[in-house]
Amino acid sequence: MRGGCCLFPLLLLVLLRGLCHGRESAPGAVTCGSVLKLLNTRHSVRLHSHEVKYGSGSGQQSVTGVEASDDANSYWRIRGKTDGSCQRGTPVKCGQAIRLTHVNTGKNLHTHHFPSPLSNNQEVSAFGDDGEGDDLDIWIVQCSGTYWEREDAVRFKHVGTEVFLSITGEQYGHPIRGQREVHGMPTANHHNYWKAMEGVFIKPSMDPAKHDEL
Fold first, then answer.
1. Contact 41, 153 (CB under 8 A)
2. CA distance 191 to 35
3. How many whole angstroms separate alpha carbon 161 and alpha carbon 155?
4. pLDDT 10s per residue in the chain (214 long)?
């Protein structure tokens, strides 16, 4: 994928910079521009993607859940619904529309009316090039307070098809043996709660004029 090979080294530089400057350990709001891993709280697996395409359905890049906490293919960047709509370091509000861009491949979390290969729910894929896809990449953050807090479990509801990002435990065989199917479900339930885990959380700038737009 064009540009994908350069993204992970850049992520490492951001991580090192964050460590050198000392990040706060206390939880706070998830912010635009942050790079993080998302844990499904019911099944204890992290949202993941890789350059493996579905053999059925859309044939797009697959999205799965993995148990390993140290897999570099589980990092996602928080972006706005459109470029410039979510300034870097701005806390994400409950009810806000966002895109989740896979760091290593530059594709966006996406869903559409294809059946998922194992459970026959709605397929979830990674789509686009260099962070640019289409309107089916947009998700609403559902949470109970004002902002998406790192310590809280939240849901992601797809704007275009109204399904929730979910895992119900089905496991793939070769070539991604043991990874879980990620899919969309029409109902809110305990299978579609996610929590922010490892990552780099961009702090708000003291000077709004210095914000970088995504």
1. yes
2. 23
3. 15
4. 444 444 445 444 444 344 333 333 346 999 999 999 999 999 999 999 999 999 999 999 999 999 999 999 999 999 999 878 889 999 999 999 999 999 999 999 999 999 999 999 999 999 999 999 999 999 999 999 999 999 999 999 999 999 999 999 999 999 999 999 999 999 999 999 999 999 999 987 644 444 334 4
Compute CA 123 distance to the chain's CA centroid, rounded to the nearest angstrom.
15
Alpha-carbon separation of residue 107 from 157, 162, 173 (angstroms)? 18, 21, 24
Radius of gyration of the chain (CA): 16
Q: What is the DSSP letter of 159?
A: T
Residue with tokens 């780099």: 200
Asked if 91 contacts 30 with a C-beta cutoff of 8 angstroms, the reply is yes
Using CA atoms, how far residue 205 sits from 40, 90, 163, 212, in Å, is 30, 8, 34, 10
Q: Which two tokens stand for residue 45?
A: 């697996």
What single-letter DSSP state applies at residue 150?
A: T
Closest CA to 139 of 97, 111, 108: 97
The 3-state DSSP composition of the chain as helix, strand, coil percent (nearest 5) reads 15, 35, 50
From CA 193, how far away is CA 93, in angstroms rounded? 17
CB atoms within 10 A of CB 88: 20
pTM of the predicted structure, to 2 decimals: 0.84
